[in-house]
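dumping the sequnces here before i forget
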Amino acid sequence: MPKRKRQTDGKRTEPTTRIDRRVVLGGMSAIVASALSGPTSAMALPEKDQQSRPALAGARLRKVATEEAFTIPEVAEAMRDVARRGGTNLDLKVLNLIYGATPDTSTSNRNTAAPTLLSRLLSLDATRISEMDANGVDMQVLALAIPGVQMFEADKAVALARLSNDRLSEAMRSHPTRFAGLACFAPQDPRAAVLEMERAINRLKLNGFLVNSHTQNVYLDDSRYWPVLEAAEGLGAPLYLHPRAPSDGMAAPFRDYNMDGSIWGYAVDASTHALRLMLSGVLDRFPRLRIVLGQMGAALPFWLWRLDSVAAPGSRAALRNKLKPSEYIQRNFAITTSGVQDPQALRFCIDKVGADRIMWAVDYPFQPTAPAVKFIESAPLSDQERAQIAFQNAQQIFRIAK
Amino acid sequence: MPKRKRQTDGKRTEPTTRIDRRVVLGGMSAIVASALSGPTSAMALPEKDQQSRPALAGARLRKVATEEAFTIPEVAEAMRDVARRGGTNLDLKVLNLIYGATPDTSTSNRNTAAPTLLSRLLSLDATRISEMDANGVDMQVLALAIPGVQMFEADKAVALARLSNDRLSEAMRSHPTRFAGLACFAPQDPRAAVLEMERAINRLKLNGFLVNSHTQNVYLDDSRYWPVLEAAEGLGAPLYLHPRAPSDGMAAPFRDYNMDGSIWGYAVDASTHALRLMLSGVLDRFPRLRIVLGQMGAALPFWLWRLDSVAAPGSRAALRNKLKPSEYIQRNFAITTSGVQDPQALRFCIDKVGADRIMWAVDYPFQPTAPAVKFIESAPLSDQERAQIAFQNAQQIFRIAK
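..and the predicted 3d for all of it:
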């Protein structure tokens, strides 16, 4: 069982915040109201940002979204090349969806969305910020869209990681109150990756890293990637472990019925990857490494009892791990709500891992923003839990200036 | 969202039953007490069974365990042959564990348990019943141990399925109040499987079927297995979809750190298999098919919101399914608590799928009985929920005479 549990007695807090806000706003829906009202924090905003966010003290919830995607034209072009080349890698389906190299005949409704998706990914300015404003999102924590630079040849990956991080840094300087950023790196060249990670934190002042799961079908527990984990730990910067479609050695059952991606493949990939980090003992080697998992922790909170029962040190499946899975979750992990807007699942995760380990996310532009905003505004949470999950934890974990 | 939800307002019932029983039993622990007290139902018991279960009206909880394993010597010998032959199939690890053909050097604590495990699997009489009595288990719903007859050549599989079902039927006749049984069949030969399924229900009066996930790496959504699904539906008999280690096309990341089996491979295999049944549209073809999933539904209840959001008909990943995943769960599935003795996960599942779809299980002899008994006796449930989960649902779903 987890060391720290919250509210396991079953009490649930009534959503008083939401009701109060409704009273204040005289019957307007919370969504419309927050889009109109803007943020309340007293930061020194660039002029153009201030105009879109009139102050309304105490009336709205600050929201920092933590799994938000962007791309740059150079990466998009390189992705098109990868997609054109083809192959059996399951991620080619999502590449075709985003970059539109080949019509995806298996899903008639996918391609129609493709141009919009790409244009929204490419925006680091007006288009993106106007959508944030319309939905009352104060800040996006940006990262290069799936699968990052991890499908390119090493040299190209290193160069594009650097370019992407530079552009991200520029966008953050242009909109310091609206964008934070997670750096990408090229695990294909661990030495270069470490140099880029250092540059991203120390020089570009980015807020952490995001890696799209496996690289060339190898997971981060492999010793070739230990320098990357060591760098993240040494820099004190969290590593967002974003899913990809399952690696080639696990792909077969996910090739049918569109099971490769957001319906199921991502869930299996991310949870399996996180467990490999726990069970390999790699988190004993890098005990201060901080890992962020999306999708409500890829259901690992739901599995914690069983994982502990089978894989606590000394038990059946434990080989190398010094701690219980639940102890790694408490020590090394934070989770986000990306893609799971279920108040029951959120409450379960708060009970299991604590409200201080959960961050709100939208997964823009792959998921619509409005329902994610409605979720964090209306889920039955205490005021403190709502503030922690909506922005406070993100500010603390990603070291975002308040 | 599921059509039917229970207690989503967050109220949790105090465990009054447990306290009452403690008062009645004058301070004895619930476990010891139930071992001493025996069942209360007024069935006509064979004499030897009656002796071990003195009546104590109203004082204890009837318990029917629904995922309990056995084997017969002929199957054990055939399993040893499979294990000796070797290969890359991930289930060879568990075969070596159970049948001890080859020392499993990767897990020092496994082999010491092997002789006991096998002797307990082989018992359909005194050894097994005395363990049930010692723990207050009224009835086991038995099924041939993992991986059933599914790794044998077709002819051998057909013959051993028949023999195993005959022995199971004999054990049930010898101990009609202690054993119910799920038939095995050989998907390798679908025609013979259908004949055996009919014989098992109509002639042997078994209570349903258990299949150990994929057969020769093919899942049950494949059209070659539709006759089997049609037979289960037509016979009105539930099909327990028991996990195996992941199929060869998914096995690679599970080959390290003992991740093949109960720690993680089973979870991924069973949930992926169940989702294939939903997303393939096979459950629209056999709408009255009843499937039972262990391990708290292999976490699918936790994922329901997301599954519906991505795979509801008309949405991104939906190709062939006519219903939402949550609607299939409500219409076609029941779940058991095997291997997950977590009151929070149980409450979550009750809220998501309903207390009338959840059955208690031990997974004897792979999991210890005492903690599973303690779990169902002490979990914070209403009297009605506890009775449903401990025995009523099993009696209804598996048509067990009361």
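The radius of gyration of chain A is 20 Å.
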